[in-house]
Specification:
The complex is a heterodimer. Chain A is α/β, with parallel strands linked by helices. Chain A has helices at residues 25-33, 54-69, 81-89, 102-110, and strands at 2-7, 12-20, 42-52, 74-77, 97-99. Chain A has a five-stranded mixed beta sheet with strand order 1-2-3-4-5, with helices on both faces. The termini of chain A are far apart. Chain B is an alpha+beta fold. In chain B, 34% of the residues lie in helices and 24% in strands. Chain B contains 13 helices and 21 strands. Chain B has helices at residues 24-40, 44-59, 97-105, 123-128, 164-210, 257-275, 281-295, 374-377, 388-398, 403-415, 471-484, 489-510, 560-567; strands at 61-69, 75-82, 91-93, 109-111, 135-142, 145-155, 221-226, 234-240, 246-253, 302-310, 315-321, 327-329, 335-337, 359-363, 368-372, 426-432, 457-465, 518-526, 529-536, 570-574, 582-589. Chain B has a six-stranded antiparallel beta sheet, with helices on both faces. In chain B, helix 1 (24-40) runs parallel beside helix 5 (164-210), helix 5 (164-210) runs parallel beside helix 6 and helix 6 packs across helix 7 (281-295). Chain B is elongated, with a radius of gyration of 41 Å. Classes of the chains: A alpha/beta, B alpha+beta. Chain A binds chain B through residues 19, 21-23, 51, 53-55, 57-59, 61-62, 65, 82, 85-86, 89-92, 95, and chain B through 468-469, 471-472, 475, 490, 493-494, 496-497, 500-501, 504, 507-508, 551, 554-557, 559-560, 562-563, 566-567.
Chain lengths: 111, 592
């Protein structure tokens, strides 16, 4: 699992690639929580994530809750089919704001 | 033959014929002749016809007829007749005419002129054109049992009138004929009884053949069955399975007699046939119950214990359908009863939840298991006292040094001793784990998919250290295997997720930290499903505490179990193996 950070001006983007599983989710969690408190909305790009497990989903939920507390918006963008399936199974697809593209995500978190 | 019924003469077997002086000699000769004929001839109908012919000729009558009373007693039918008019087969009401009069009153009668007799029935004459003038009639009866009558019509010679001599002779003959008919009927009944008895014995023979043949003396399972009647409603069976375990069954069909015996034959056959491929007792009983419910006679049911014993480990897995609780005796001689947790077979297929008949598992650990019918505990001992459960326990303890065969012999001698009448069928099955050498502590079958009919073909097996960095390896292997089994991309991804989550639970919850032990994964493939078993070697996990996450609660973690149950068709924690650890079985159905 790898991640790449970028700043789109109106939002911080963190793009993950590879598998987020028990082995890699601690790193993913650390990277996600690092964005909390940075002021800008957070976009999590999951287009390159082939596999995410419950520990990865839990990291996303934890980050969402922390971001809310610090007044930051968070959206998931370009979610791969595999990751979307797991979010649906966990009934979390309505908890997260999920956008098809980064641009949609920027629009969503800017409102 | 009551005297009041005999208006003209009394014939107790013809012994008083001597009081009739005239023509005694030739009368006796005729009667003796006919008596011999009756005694020696198998064809009663022909003999009777001959007798009517001879008496008609002897008395010199124009016609003669023999009427038999129908079994219901309402009709008289002409079974033999001699004379110018054929009336064979003619039926009249049982009280009609002179014949009816004689039969009903059990008396003989001479009618010299029918025109003056109100009892005479002219309808036959009117139909046939025959003219009846005089009648001689005698009833056929034995000890008041009405059989029919013989009637002679129109005396030819002399004054054309029948006399007392004629009547005496006809009465004697009728009595002999009645005896012959009665004897023939009794003989036929005896033949029928003998046939039924023979059939019952054949049924018993077939039943005995359904019981297992005694194995070599060191075979750990033994049984005894003593039927209270010729056939039995009890049965027991045991047979080796192809994995070295031994399946055993003991059942008791409600009721006794032939219907119970037939039900027993059906139940025993079903269990033996299906039990060789379905090695999970609860599953097997569910299937047999459905079958019996579908076809059983109303009100009949079977209480039954079926189980599987592994001589290599001492492990027993059994299901009890409403039967007397089997007794386990441990090596120290302590007793424990295995209570029934389900209703008998044949009551209803709907009484059970979808998991079927509950199973009990335990390890005999050198002890013994006794399964028996209530014919044992309710049987009378030699002192006329009911054996009872305590009596049985005492017997098991006392005869323990003689091995289970010694115990079975003791029970047999106590309840079913020589010349004793059994109250009920007595059946007892015993498993002796004391003689077994346990070479394997892992119970067989426990790792098999329990809720499925066949284990399927093993297509994948992997044992790795329970570490997070092995999960990717496991996922890839499972993905390939699921794909090989023909699952769609979505289903494959789901299966991979479930196995991954299950492995995580092992790492995080069973072992508590990484690298503490191994995870073993086995995948079996059936045409209709893929069955995964996951085993760890950690301390047993309290299954009741593992619950799918409450979806209203959004805290991270605890989600894995929910995901597993969401994507798999069956998720079962199997009973823990004897040597520790946990077993989880996941089933995913293949949708065509």
């Amino acid at each position: 699992m790898q991640h790449k950070l970028s700043d789109a001006g109106d939002a911080l983007i963190i793009a993950f690639s590879g598998d987020i599983d028990l082995q890699t989710s601690p790193d993913a969690r650390k990277a996600l929580l690092a964005l909390v408190g940075k002021g800008k909305p957070i976009l999590v790009d999951l287009s390159g994530v082939g596999y995410i497990d419950s520990s990865g989903v839990a990291s996303l939920v934890e980050c969402l809750q922390s971001a809310k507390k610090s007044g930051q918006k968070l959206a998931l963008v370009s979610v791969s089919d595999g990751a979307l399936r797991v979010l649906q199974l966990a009934r979390l697809d309505r908890v997260f704001v999920i956008c098809a593209t980064i641009d949609d995500g920027v629009t969503a978190v800017s409102q | 033959m009551a005297e009041t019924h005999m208006t003209h003469v009394e014939i107790p077997g013809g012994a008083q014929l001597g009081v009739v002086p005239a023509a005694t000699h030739s009368h006796l000769e005729l009667l003796a002749d006919m008596g011999r004929d009756f005694a020696s001839n198998q064809d009663l109908e022909a003999t009777l016809r001959r007798a009517v012919e001879r008496i008609t000729n002897y008395v010199d009558a124009e016609a003669g007829a023999l009427f038999m009373l129908s079994p219901c007693g309402l009709k008289l039918q002409c079974d033999a007749c001699i004379g110018p008019v054929e009336i064979g087969g003619l039926q009249i009401a049982a009280d009609q005419g002179i014949v009816g009069f004689c039969v009903q009153r059990d008396t003989g009668r001479i009618v010299r002129d029918v025109a003056n007799d109100p009892d005479f029935n002219a309808s036959v004459d009117n139909e046939t054109g025959f003219r009846t003038r005089s009648i001689l009639c005698a009833p056929m009866s034995v000890k008041g049992e009405k059989i029919g009558a013989i009637e002679l019509i129109n005396k030819r010679g002399g004054d054309g009138l029948f006399d007392d001599n004629d009547l005496h002779l006809l009465q004697a003959l009728s009595f002999s004929a009645a005896l012959a008919v009665l004897n023939a009927r009794m003989a036929a009944e005896l033949v029928e009884q003998e046939r039924v008895k023979r059939e019952l014995e054949l049924a018993a023979e077939i039943q005995r053949s359904l019981l297992p043949a005694q194995k070599e003396s060191d075979f750990p399972v033994k049984g005894v069955n003593l039927p209270a009647r010729v056939v039995s409603g009890d049965f027991y069976d045991f047979y080796p399975l192809n994995d070295g375990r031994v399946a055993f069954t003991l059942g008791d069909v409600s009721g006794k007699g032939m219907n119970a015996a037939l039900m027993m034959a059906k139940s025993a056959s079903l269990l033996r046939c299906l039990g060789k491929s379905i090695k999970e007792p609860g599953r097997l009983l569910t299937l047999v119950n459905e079958e019996i419910c579908e076809t059983a006679t109303r009100g009949m049911f079977v209480t039954l214990v079926h189980g599987v014993y592994d001589p290599e480990s001492g492990h027993v897995r059994l299901a009890n359908a409403g039967h007397e609780p089997p007794l386990v005796v441990d090596r120290e001689g302590n007793f424990r009863a295995i209570e029934a947790e389900a209703p008998p077979l044949g009551i209803s297929p709907a009484l059970l939840d979808e998991d079927g008949f509950p199973e009990t598992e335990f390890n005999l650990d050198g002890g013994r298991l006794f399964v028996f019918t209530d014919g044992v505990t309710e049987g009378y001992t030699a002192d006329g006292v009911e054996l009872g459960i305590d009596g049985l326990k005492a017997m098991i303890s006392e005869a323990a040094p003689g091995g289970v065969q010694g115990i079975l012999d003791r029970v047999r001698a106590s309840i079913g001793g020589e010349g004793r009448t059994l109250r009920d069928d007595v059946t007892l099955l015993a498993i002796d784990d004391g003689t077994a050498v346990h070479t394997n502590s892992v119970p067989k079958g426990a790792a098999e998919p329990g809720a499925t009919d066949a284990p399927g073909e093993k297509i994948f097996q992997l044992r790795v250290t329970a570490k997070a960095n092995r999960l990717r390896l496991i996922r890839n292997a499972v993905r390939e295997t699921a794909s090989f089994c023909g699952f769609s991309e979505t289903d494959t991804a789901d299966i991979v997720l479930a196995v991954d989550e299950a492995c995580q639970n092992v790492i995080r919850h069973a072992y508590g930290s990484e690298g503490e032990g191994d995870i073993a994964i086995e995948i079996r493939h059936r045409p209709d499903a893929m069955i995964l078993t996951l085993r760890d070697f950690a301390d047993p996990v309290d299954i009741s505490k593992i619950k799918p996450r409450d979806l209203d609660d959004l805290r991270p973690g605890g989600l894995g179990t929910h995901l597993i149950s969401e994507v798999m068709d069956e998720v079962d924690f199997l009973p823990p193996p004897i040597d520790g650890g946990n077993l989880l079985r996941l089933v995913k159905k293949i949708r065509s």
